[in-house]
Design a protein that fits this description.
It is a single chain. The protein is α/β, with parallel strands linked by helices. It contains 5 helices and 9 strands; from the N terminus they run βααβααβββββββα. A 5-stranded mixed beta sheet has the order 2-5-6-8-9. It has a two-stranded parallel ribbon with strand order 1-3. β5 and β6 form a beta hairpin. The longest helix has 18 residues, at 69-86. The radius of gyration is 16 Å and the shape is globular.
Length: 214
């Protein structure tokens, strides 16, 4: 049994901060069974609880209509991250990331934690996430910016509390990649937690918006 302490969790979040398709998204509150090597991308997408779980329900706002493949790919990755952080056994979860992120990102951020069976510091509680803007930095790279209200997303031992500063800007950088099934797909190549480089652009709006209550 491999444990992950809160210190190791901080290391993981630091990695995320530093480098960190148009399928119908699943709204199930109970994630499915582990990914396998034979799983298709579409099957993996359906396993991601894009609207959260009973422990971490997610409310999305200001989404595009119709939703672009880039934004949907970014939302999958963000929902995946919050789902993972809410669970204690990561072994059935992390393999799914192979279908959501580039190989380089998987090896740097997720693979070192693939054997964690006893994560000791889960965070749970409702989240509200607002799409702030989409930036096309090159034909094959897009940065999707979100504001997340984390006011009630807390460690289990702190679940009776409320964060003093609930607003968090975060970005998902997605890249168009030729995948194993021969189809080009948008995969996450970078996850930026606490995106301070977008504070001037979105900070005040995010802070004003992040005032939700369950």
């Amino acid at each position: 049994m491999k444990r992950l302490t809160s210190g190791a969790a901080i290391v993981m979040m630091s990695l995320l901060a530093g480098c960190t398709g148009t399928d119908e998204p699943s709204t199930s509150s109970t994630p499915s069974s582990p990914a396998t090597s034979s799983m298709t991308d579409e099957e993996a997408y359906r396993k991601v609880p894009i609207d959260g779980t009973d422990a971490v329900p997610i409310t999305w706002e200001s989404l595009e209509s119709p939703e672009s493949e880039q934004v949907l790919a970014a939302r999958r990755s963000l929902a995946f991250l919050y789902w993972e952080r809410s669970e204690t056994d990561w072994t059935p979860i992390i393999p799914i990331a192979r279908h959501l992120v580039t190989e380089k990102h998987f090896q740097e951020v997720y693979e070192p934690f693939a054997g964690v069976t006893d994560f000791e510091d889960p965070l749970r509680g409702p989240l509200w996430i607002k799409l702030m803007g989409v930036e096309k930095t090159s034909p094959d790279v897009v940065r999707v910016n979100f504001c997340t209200d984390r006011g009630y997303w807390l460690r289990v031992k702190d679940e009776a509390k409320v964060r003093e500063d609930p607003a968090n800007l975060e970005s998902i950088v997605v890249k168009l990649v030729q995948t194993g099934d021969g189809e080009p797909r948008w995969l996450t190549d970078m996850q930026i937690d606490n995106a301070g480089d977008r504070a001037d652009q979105y900070g005040a709006q995010c802070t004003a918006w992040a005032k939700h209550k369950p």
